[in-house]
TrEMBL record:
It comes from the Bacteria. Gene3D superfamilies: alpha/beta hydrolase. NCBIfam families: PHB_depoly_PhaZ (TIGR01849). This is Putative poly-beta-hydroxyalkanoate depolymerase. Residues 205-406 form the PHB de-polymerase C-terminal domain. Pfam families: PHB_depo_C (PF06850). InterPro entries: AB_hydrolase_fold (IPR029058), PHA/PHB_synthase (IPR051321), PHB_depo_C (IPR009656), PHB_depoly_PhaZ (IPR010915).
C-alpha cells in the first residue's frame, strides 16, 4: 500500500497553502493594527484556513521556568539516555530539592510525549522528573533495526537502570498504553533480582486486561484479524524520509481515529476558535492553539510494535492468561511482592474502561494490600485521568500521597 506517499504529497501542498494564507493573515493583521480597521472578517478566515491546512511538527515541551513552593525555578531539559527509538529526558531544576525521581512513560500511540507537557508540569512540585520521548520511526533509517512490544519492555528496564545509576530507584508512572509493558518490565526486574527496581508503579487508565470491561476500541481490535490490520492500515514510509520504506502504522490514520471518536467535540472546538478569531478573544485563541498544536502533531508507530501490541494486549490477552515470555522466561506477576502499585481509572473512560487497569491487582497475587492503592475518578473521561483541572487539583495530590509513603 502506498497511500502514505499520496497523503504525504497532499499534506505538502496543503502546508504551502497554509504558509501563504498565514502570510496574508499577518499582512491584514498588521494593517488592522496600524489603521484600526475592522479587518478581522478577512484575517479570521485566513488564520482559520492556515491552521486547518498546516503540517504540525513535534511541539517542544517548552518548560523553562516554574514557581515551586513560592520560588521561581529554572528547568533545563537534558537527554540522559538515548536508544534508537526513544530518548529519556530529564528536567533538571536549577535549585536542588532532593526530590525523589519519577519516570513518566508516555504513550506510544500516535502522539508525541509533549502532549503531556501540562500533565507532567504537576510532577515538578514533588519529584525529579524524567519522561520517555518516543521518536518518529519515519526519521529512523531501516538499517537501524525494528522495534516491537518487547523492545518497549527492554527500554523501560534500561531507563529504570539509568535513573537508578544517576540517583536512586524511580517511581514509574505508565499513562494508558504503556501500562502493559510497564508491568512486564517491573516484573522482569523483580524476577531477575536486578539491582535497579522501580520504587513504585502507577498505572493510569491503561489496558492490562481488556476483557474486564471492553470498549468500542477493544471490540474493533478484536473483530478483525492481524492480517486484516496488516493489509489495511500498515504503510511504507515515503521515499523522501530517512526511514524510507520502513513498514509503519501511520500517525495520520491514528489521528483520524482519535478525531472520529468525538467528531462533534472537535468540530465545536474549531467553530469556537473561529468565533474567537472574529471576536479577537485572545485567551480562547491561545488556549486552542496551545492544545491543538500538540494534538494535531502525530507520529508513526513501527508496524511490528502496532501488530504485536494488538496481538499481545487486545487479541490474545497475554498478561492475563500467563503467556508473556520475555528473554526466554515466562513472566509470573506473583513475583511482584514489594513494589507498591497504584491504579487510577476514570468513570467515563471510553478507551480503557474501569476494570481494565485494576486487573493488575488480580495478576499480582502476592502483593500485600498495604502496597496497593486505587483511585476512581468520577465523572471523568480518558484524558481526565491525567490532565485537566481534576488532575491538577486532586488526582496528582492523591498520587503523591501514595508514593510518599514509600520514599
Amino acid at each position: 500500500m502506498f497511500f502514505y506517499s499520496t497523503r504525504d504529497y497532499q499534506a505538502t501542498v496543503l502546508h504551502e497553502l497554509s504558509e501563504r494564507t498565514r502570510d496574508w493573515a499577518s499582512f491584514f493583521g498588521d494593517m488592522e493594527s496600524h489603521l484600526s480597521s475592522p479587518l478581522r472578517s478577512i484575517t479570521a478566515p485566513l488564520s482559520f484556513i492556515s491552521r486547518l491546512a498546516k503540517h504540525y511538527p513535534r511541539a517542544p515541551f517548552g518548560i523553562k521556568e516554574m514557581s515551586i513552593d513560592g520560588c521561581d525555578v529554572e528547568i533545563n531539559e537534558e537527554v540522559v539516555c538515548e536508544n534508537t527509538f526513544c530518548r529519556l529526558l530529564h528536567f533538571r531544576k536549577s535549585h536542588s530539592q532532593d526530590a525523589p525521581p519519577i519516570m513518566v512513560i508516555a504513550p506510544l500511540s500516535g502522539h508525541y510525549a509533549s502532549l503531556l507537557r501540562r500533565s507532567i508540569a504537576m510532577f515538578f512540585r514533588g519529584y525529579d522528573v524524567y519522561i520517555t520521548d518516543w521518536l518518529n520511526p519515519r526519521y529512523i533509517d531501516s538499517s537501524k533495526g525494528d522495534f516491537g512490544f518487547y523492545d518497549f519492555v527492554q527500554y523501560i528496564c534500561d531507563f529504570i537502570s539509568t535513573i537508578n545509576a544517576i540517583d536512586r530507584p524511580p517511581h514509574v508512572v505508565a499513562i494508558c498504553q504503556p501500562t502493559a509493558p510497564a508491568m512486564v518490565s517491573v516484573c522482569h526486574l523483580a524476577m531477575s533480582g536486578a539491582a535497579a527496581q522501580a520504587k513504585s508503579l502507577i498505572l493510569m487508565g491503561g489496558p492490562v486486561d481488556v476483557r474486564c470491561n471492553p470498549t468500542d476500541v477493544c471490540r474493533f481490535a478484536d473483530s478483525n484479524s492481524l492480517s486484516w490490520f496488516d493489509a489495511n492500515v500498515i504503510e511504507y514510509v515515503p521515499a523522501r524520509y530517512p526511514g524510507a520504506f520502513r513498514r509503519v502504522y501511520p500517525g495520520y490514520i491514528q489521528h483520524e481515529a482519535f478525531i472520529n471518536m468525538h467528531p462533534d467535540k472537535h468540530v465545536g472546538e474549531h467553530f469556537a476558535f473561529y468565533k474567537a478569531l472574529l471576536d479577537n478573544d485572545k485567551e480562547i485563541v491561545k488556549r486552542h492553539v496551545n492544545f491543538y498544536d500538540t494534538y494535531h502533531a502525530v507520529m508513526d508507530m513501527t508496524a511490528k510494535f502496532f501488530l504485536e501490541t494488538l496481538q499481545i494486549v487486545f487479541k490474545e490477552h497475554h498478561l492475563a492468561t500467563g503467556k508473556v515470555v520475555f528473554k526466554g522466561n515466562k513472566i509470573d506477576f506473583s513475583a511482584i511482592t514489594d513494589v507498591p502499585i497504584m491504579v487510577i481509572e476514570a468513570e467515563f473512560d471510553d478507551i480503557c474502561a474501569p476494570g481494565q487497569t485494576k486487573a493488575a491487582f488480580d495478576l499480582c497475587k502476592k502483593l500485600p494490600d498495604k502496597y496497593k492503592g486505587y483511585l476512581f475518578v468520577e465523572k471523568a473521561g480518558h484524558y481526565g485521568v491525567f490532565s485537566g483541572k481534576r488532575w491538577e487539583n486532586d488526582t496528582y495530590y492523591k498520587l503523591k500521597a501514595f508514593t510518599s509513603k514509600f520514599d
